[in-house]
Amino acid sequence: MKPALTNQTEHDLRRFFADRSNRTLRYLAHASTIHDSIHAYRDEVHRLQDEGMVPLPGFFARETLLEIGRLFDALIAAGRCLAPVKDRSHKLVGVDSRDLTTRDRASSIGLEDPLVSIPELLPLAFDARLLGMATAYFQTVPMLSYVKVRKSFANAIPPSPTQHFHVDIGTYRIFKVLLYLNDVGPGGGPFCYVKGSHRRKFSGWESKRYSEQEMAAEYGDDCVVHHYAHAGDAMVVESTGFHCGEKPYASDRAILILNYTVHPEYGFDYAPVRIRRDDFESLPDYARAAADALTVFAD
Left if phi > 0, otherwise alpha if psi is -120 to 50, otherwise beta: which for 58? Predict the structure, then answer.
């Protein structure tokens, strides 16, 4: 295997450092918070830099995440606040999608405007410990760039693109947090990560998506970590390393994903993350700084 730079282009690298500097200058009033975070989360950052992943068992109260899962299920049942569903029933030979329910014709279903649809997510997205770790990792005020709540179905649909190993390429560095909304064991569609792959790539790594067997051929047997966990456990990853959400076959998996960066992610289309003005203004000062890329609106 040939090592390769983990940054996508020289432009990505320069933009990252330029925007990190700009954020530091913009938020000099928070210099002491940045300094304290770098020292407080030194161990977590070192592990993230080395392995690309940091498991945090019992990070949030289990019941908090299970309740958010129940709220999400209620919205699914009511058909409210949901993102458009991608029908993948054409992957099933001889099946008429008109005879299928949503869960049997789609790989997954997502929530539209997560911070608006379920405001109970706000204390998680702006948790002081997560912001502190992201601050230490970037060595500046992080930016909440992406929020996703999604349920992956255990059904007959073949794996979707995100259920194959890939790399996030929306910036040079991404601090991604994964929180299950239900317990996930074998067959439950765990998040999977190739340890150390954020630091070394192989020639042509960006050309396609990969199977676990292909990852093993490049990085060695047992290179893939399957993140089996309980609701309330957290996993922090550097998602410029190879990762995927495994196709569930025994039970559905619901997950909250939070991305923190130093600038808005680029290179693909996604809906802006929205937040109500009252909720934005109720955030602590440092959290408001981390929310500065969100679309603030008044009801």
Answer: left
What H or E segment, with its residue span, contains residue 221?
Answer: none
CA distance 91 to 73: 26
- Backbone phi and psi for residue 148, each to the nearest 5 degrees, phi listed first: -140, 135
The total of structural domains in the chain comes to 1
Whose tokens are 């030194």? That residue is 42
Question: Which range of residues forms the domain containing residue 166?
Answer: 10-297
- Residue 196 inside a domain? The answer is yes
- At residue 33, the pLDDT reads 97
CATH of the domain at 56: 2.60.120.620
Q: Check if the beta carbon of residue 110 is closer than 8 Å to that of residue 100.
A: no
Contact 261, 238 (CB under 8 A): no
Neighbours of 273 (CB within 10 A): 22
- Which amino acid is present at 128? A
Is pTM beyond 0.85? Reply is yes
pLDDT digit string, tens, across residues 55-85: 999 999 999 999 999 999 999 999 999 999 8
